[in-house]
Write a structure and sequence with these properties.
globular; TIM Barrel; 6 helices; 8-stranded mixed sheet
Length: 238
């Protein structure tokens, strides 16, 4: 349930929770759902439930055995803040992240309202970065929910970016990731949307990370914007 990652902004993944349900437009072509069903068909025992929310308590302490510091994407195959994940289990995950303080944990959710609700009972160690996914202007309220949390590092993932995001409020936001959708049926991302977000980040002094153009041929499309990569990362918590 953990492995080195090819995701450009992290080093490894750790999946104490797998499975999810669709909540918004960005979920339509979910890579994790496709992969989970493929693994289920292959007989992978951890995916016997396919993409139904499943807890894997036996991997909770895995990061404690990784001695080399890593950036770890938490639940790349699910959503820690899904309503079907008990609060007690979320607290167990946070306890491990707090103990494994030599790592940096990157948690990403679309369920920002539940994040805001649970924030008062979560202890936020400085090595936990909390992010929300926002695919178009219909879901910018997720940013306000994130902003109200007590996470030391707050980040936004605009992936898959499905529309323009003008006039973003980047106050108290520490990092922005932008990426296009990839794989079969990938919806297009316009260059101007990306450039505008980069411009807003520059004005606000927020590190900007461009992950990919996406498309059906992701590798061919690459991740260059104006002939260079954009790999900025957040500074340490305030």
């Amino acid at each position: 349930m953990a492995n080195d990652s090819k995701i450009e902004w992290t080093d490894a993944t750790w999946n104490p929770v797998t499975g999810c349900t669709k909540v918004s437009a960005g979920c339509a072509h979910c890579y994790a759902e496709h992969m989970a069903k493929r693994l289920q068909a292959m007989g992978q025992p951890r995916y016997v439930n396919g993409f139904r929310v499943t807890l894997h308590g036996d991997v909770l302490e895995l990061p404690l055995r990784w001695k080399k510091p890593r950036k770890i994407f938490v639940d790349s195959m699910g959503d820690l803040f899904h309503a079907d994940v008990p609060l007690s289990f979320i607290l167990d995950v946070f306890a491990v992240m707090r103990r494994a303080d030599w790592h940096t944990f990157q948690v990403l959710t679309k369920r920002a309202e539940l994040l805001r609700k649970l924030d008062p009972v979560l202890e936020w160690p400085p090595n936990v970065w909390m992010g929300v996914s926002v695919e178009n202007a219909d879901y910018v309220e997720r940013i306000d929910h994130l902003r109200s949390s007590h996470a030391g590092i707050k980040f936004l993932s605009f992936e898959p970016l499905l529309g323009p995001l003008p006039a973003l409020d980047l106050d108290n936001i520490d990092w922005v990731i932008v990426g296009g959708e990839s794989g079969p049926g990938a919806r297009p991302m316009e260059r101007e949307w990306v450039v505008d977000i980069r411009r807003q980040c520059q004005r606000a002094g927020v590190p900007f990370f461009f992950k990919q153009w996406g498309g059906v041929h992701k590798k061919q499309a690459g991740r260059l914007l104006d002939d260079r990569t954009h790999d900025a990362m957040p500074a340490k918590p305030r």
